[in-house]
Structure formats: structure tokens, C-alpha cells
Design a protein that fits this description.
By secondary structure, this protein is mainly α. It is built from seven helices and no strands. The chain is rod-shaped and about 85 Å long. Helix 2 packs across helix 3. Helices cover 78% and strands 0% of the residues.
């Protein structure tokens, strides 16, 4: 609960109401109130603004509050998560679409005598889509479990 008392102390030291501080940060007074009651925490962007506004270091705002430190660590992990999740999802989709394309080519060649020879002799074409689908699915699923 260190952060909640520190933010209130700094706000009062600078002779600001919750409303005035909220206006300076472009957020509601209710958000400031929740911070001061220990019900929620600001994002890192607002912590930096608070640090600048009150002319104190981020350490002074964050270090004594283990809940806030944990939230910041969790938030920073989530920043990298969407990029990797997107990468694995795209890999999964490309692999799946490649498998579908292979099926349509084989069916088209058998049923309609199309004779499409799109990289059929290539080892990459034979096993690539399968591995892309598997790697995409495993990567996407493991990230989803890790960052729940």
C-alpha cells in the first residue's frame, strides 16, 4: 500500500485536489481516488508523468509497493506477448492454408485431370505446411497459457 499513501502525500504537498491532478494527467478524478485507496494502479506511462509532475524518481513511487512492482512486471511481459502470439497465429494459418491448397491440388488432379505440378517434388512443399501448422499451434497455445 506504499504507492497509495505516497501519491496522496505528493498530491497534497503540491496543493492539488484529485480533480486537478486528474486534469493534469488527462484522467478522471475517480482514477486518482482509486489509486489513493489502493484499489488500482496507473500504467507505466502515467507513473512517468506523475514522477515528472511531482519531481520524484520512479523508484520513490514504485519501490516500496510490491503489488505495483508485480503489476508493472506483468504489464511489461504482456507487451511482447501480442507480437509473438500474432507471429505463431499467422504461422498456423499459413500452414493450414498450405495444407488445404495441397488437398485441393491433389483432389483437382485426381478428379478433374488438371495435372497441377506446384512444387510437388519439393521436400519443403511436402512437410513444410505440416511443421508450420504444428509449430504455430504449439507456440500460440503455450503463449496463451503462459500469459493468462
Amino acid at each position: 500500500m506504499y504507492f497509495s499513501s505516497k501519491i496522496k502525500e505528493e498530491r497534497q504537498k503540491h496543493s492539488m485536489s484529485q480533480q486537478q491532478l486528474g486534469e493534469k494527467l488527462n484522467i478522471s478524478r475517480q482514477s486518482i481516488s482509486k489509486w489513493e485507496r489502493g484499489e488500482s494502479y496507473p500504467c507505466i506511462e502515467l507513473l512517468i508523468k506523475l514522477s515528472d509532475l511531482f519531481d520524484i524518481t520512479l523508484d520513490e513511487l514504485v519501490k516500496g509497493d510490491t503489488s505495483l512492482k508485480e503489476k508493472l512486471i506483468k504489464d511489461s511481459q504482456k507487451l511482447a506477448y501480442p507480437r509473438w502470439k500474432l507471429f505463431f497465429d499467422i504461422l498456423l494459418i499459413i500452414g493450414f492454408l498450405s495444407i488445404l491448397a495441397k488437398i485441393f491440388i491433389v483432389v483437382g488432379n485426381k478428379l478433374f485431370d488438371l495435372n497441377i505440378v506446384l512444387l510437388q517434388d519439393s521436400l519443403l512443399f511436402q512437410i513444410g505446411p505440416f511443421f508450420m501448422t504444428i509449430i504455430g499451434a504449439i507456440g500460440s497455445e503455450s503463449l496463451a497459457k503462459k500469459y493468462k
